Amino acid sequence: MSKEIIIDKEKAGLSEGKVEQSILFESGNEVAAYAAAQINYHIMGYYPISPSTEVAQFLDGMKARGQHDIKLIAADGEHGSAGICYGAATGGGRVFNATSANGFLYMLEQLPVQSGTRMPMVLNLVNRSVSGPLNIHGDHSDLYFALNIGWPILMARDPQVVYDMNIMAIKLAEDPEVRLPVIVSYDGYFTSHQKRRLQVIKDSNEVRKFVGEVPTEFPHALDRDNPVTIGAYMNEPDTINNRYQQSQAMYNAEKVFERISKEFAELTGREYPILDQYGMEDAEVAVFLLNSATEVAKGVVDKLRAKGIKAGVISPNILRPFPQKQLAEALKNVKAITVGDRGDSYGAHGGNMSMEVKAALHTYGNSETKVITRIFGLGGKDFYADEAEQFFQLAIDAVEAGKVEVPFDYFGHTPGNPELAPKRRIEPLKKEDLRTGLISVTPNEETGELKVKIPPLRALTKKPKRISSGHGACPGCGIFSGLETFFKGIEGDIVTLFHTGCAMIVTTGYPYSSHKATYIHNLFQNGAATLSGLVEMFHERQRRGEFKALGLSDDFTFVMVTGDGGMDIGMGPAIGAALRNHKMIIVEYDNEGYMNTGSQLSYSTPLGHMTSTSGVGPYQAGKAFHHKDTAQIMASTNIPYVFTGSEAYPQDLVKKGAKAQWYANNVGLVYGKILIACPLNWKSNETLGQTIVDAAVNSCFFPLYEVEKGVTTITYNPEDKNKRIELTEWLKYMGKTKHLLKEENKALVAEFEKEVERRWNQLKAKHESPYL
């Protein structure tokens, strides 16, 4: 966190309350973490997704410095993080989380369970566009999915409000009249990353005093003298009663929030009424907006009022329960209002907010106020003052015309121009260039063992790259050199599916693509399932003779590319695809972290390595647990072929690529893991990538081997070559591991070395025996 700023509060117009406050210059994500640390939650289950990732990062950095006692649990995906939070909540303590967009949708199934069983917690929903297509910037398409899950929703339009709402949220969640999990919603990048001057309560004890002690009257799973059944199966009459009680608790949240807001105002000088109203006391035209866009419109109100136009802007501080009565009262004299929705309810002739504003007016007998709906700001599209002025003008025009000419439309979209239609810039690869005839894979008729023949690598240099140059990868990134080396072993056409990750992001920035063959994207967790569906469609259409009838090629190899932690959140579907044994290849580029979101720990991050969520400080020395061996996990599914590879050993990798293609086309699923360098997040010299991955192999951290029909073969043994090196010889190349070379971390390195040695000896035993 920033240092406290010394400033004249009276001149700056800052608030005064009962407690001493510090002035900071921070972003929304930073102060969400700061508030959580002051409350000192028991548990945070989380999974990184932009733009909410920073909340966990900041908390981890504070944890390393000993600034809070929160147990941070990195989940295998957002569904898992929601499960961790729910499980922790059943234990009676305080629980915290942060997420965005598709991550929120992935955990969605779990969230009504939490509210339906009345387990309090706080979730920061850092609003972001829901894909597809993939977009990481801010709109409210994720927030609108939250409207029906039974969680009260507090709205935060700037970083100050993010801090304040986070403190009030846990008090609201734990109130006996509410006892529900609560969402704090704020705009991704507009609020999450932009720094603002704000005030925070200086003494954390004052925060905890305001929040109060953890409630003891709620039943929980850790009281052995009072066992409880949580989430019982309910028949029809019981369920409706349960829902009625939950509904009553939701409506109670409104009056409880009002009470808490007044208490908070006494404490800090900042009060949050149910509705944030600006210029609404005599407004004749108004605009309804959520969160950060509201602040843009307030300046326009001043401008219009200077011209004699009675304009106002209105925005709820609490979205669930929806402040229907208060809104109807605020609009009773308004002649026309433009509702800006940063998300569409497709097919409903308006977004969710416009539907709810209309419902509020109708419920309270107002048929006079004209409502104009505009969908705006999708995908993080900026909203400027002149555009807010156009929103007001729509309302003014409706008043003057006595009717709404266009009740519903999008705002800020651009008409298509046929001259700007995307054009092919990369010609498709020629079949004859992809089948060199220099690589052959022949099974032995008696043993079934594959005999693989590959030429000298220089003979394959004329084989075209499957991904063009011109992508946006960082200098020294090992993804594409590693993948292209692997692809050299594959003959003919391929169809690739890429998980979200660096390899996907840097090659497909619309309207351009670096891919020379068909490419598909799907989310982390579902890539293997998606490609297996495509594979089976291919084989079924091939069986029916449809490709030949249409004169199309029916000669494809299907490859899923994963990395950046994709084999954490995507492990379940990958195992499912393996057990079904679809004819496809899954190849993982292992960069030891979630690099495309800023280097958070993944389960493939080794012990002790520093990431943005496994920080280094007096109270923490990097990642606290060992790395995940995905190759061995996938080998245990009994698929026909598993391999590991490295661009530092290109002939080995090309040969394995050829084998992978044969097995994928003739037998079933193949899994491969390639260690690749990430200089940016490994904090290493960008010219040393191949040197570093070579050292990883020679230290036996990343052994090269294959598992063919259940039989393990080490394909490169550094001990036989007299090239084995100490683990520290590999660690010395990377800035993310420099702390491990210090004397105080000697025991941690010894533990790391012991595990590497155990896995290496186990692999050698498997190499010696076909039955292991």
TrEMBL record:
Main enzyme class: oxidoreductase
Any GO MF annotation of the entry: 4 iron, 4 sulfur cluster binding
Record carries keyword Oxidoreductase: yes
Domain Thiamine pyrophosphate enzyme TPP-binding: residue ranges: 556-660
Superkingdom of the source species: Bacteria
Keywords for the protein's UniProt record, in alphabetical order: 4Fe-4S, Electron transport, Iron, Iron-sulfur, Metal-binding, Oxidoreductase, Pyruvate, Transport
EC id: 1.2.7.1
Domain Pyruvate flavodoxin/ferredoxin oxidoreductase pyrimidine binding intervals: 35-260
Biological processes, Gene Ontology terms: response to oxidative stress
Domain Pyruvate:ferredoxin oxidoreductase core: 283-387
Record family assignment: Belongs to the pyruvate:ferredoxin/flavodoxin oxidoreductase family.
Name assigned to this protein: Pyruvate ferredoxin oxidoreductase alpha subunit
